[in-house]
UniProtKB/TrEMBL annotation:
Domain DUF488: 32-146
Classification lineage: Archaea, Methanobacteriati, Methanobacteriota, Stenosarchaea group, Halobacteria
Pfam family, one: DUF488-N3a
Gene source species: Natrarchaeobaculum aegyptiacum
Name of the protein in question: DUF488 domain-containing protein
Cited InterPro entries: DUF488-N3a
Superkingdom assignment: Archaea
């Protein structure tokens, strides 16, 4: 979590950590989902969701296909997930989405403004980044760059 005088704190976590009380966030933190197609139980865990900041559908589909192919080749679930990211150039494509998609840019600017005004935010997705790569880490880096 980063702290700047007069500015909100920024964190990221995954939904299961919130559901099982595995993460320590200040009580005033707004839980912002960044999931393209959230489940009802995801909605029940977060305060809001910004689907525009989730990876675009075509990127999710190509990553899932690569992941399944890698599992067939014998990689474990986590290994296949992480290798699929490299295979489809996930990071580069997601960063491009944040730059070129009007809804994503608007949502990103809104989060940056909220942080500047003092609101503390935690970006929430499904992946435990101790074992799997997740777009929310890229999103957090982007927000931190805008704050610098």
């Amino acid at each position: 979590m980063s702290t700047d005088a007069g500015r909100g704190q920024l964190a990221d976590t995954y939904v299961a950590a919130l559901q099982h009380d595995l993460v320590d966030l200040p009580p005033e933190t707004t839980l912002v989902g960044v999931v393209r197609s959230p489940t009802p139980w995801f909605h029940a865990t977060v305060d809001e969701n910004l689907p525009a900041l989730g990876p675009p559908a075509n990127l999710l589909e190509s990553t899932k296909a690569a992941e399944e192919d890698l599992k067939v080749q014998g990689l474990c679930a986590e290994g296949a997930h992480n290798a699929a990211w490299d295979r489809v150039d996930f990071g580069e494509r997601y960063r491009e989405h944040l730059e070129t998609d009007e809804e994503a840019r608007t949502a990103l600017e809104s989060l940056a403004t909220r942080l500047e005004s003092g609101e503390s935010l935690a970006l929430v997705c499904f992946e435990n980044t101790e074992t799997k790569r997740c777009h929310r880490t890229i999103l957090r880096e982007r927000l931190e760059q805008e704050r610098a």
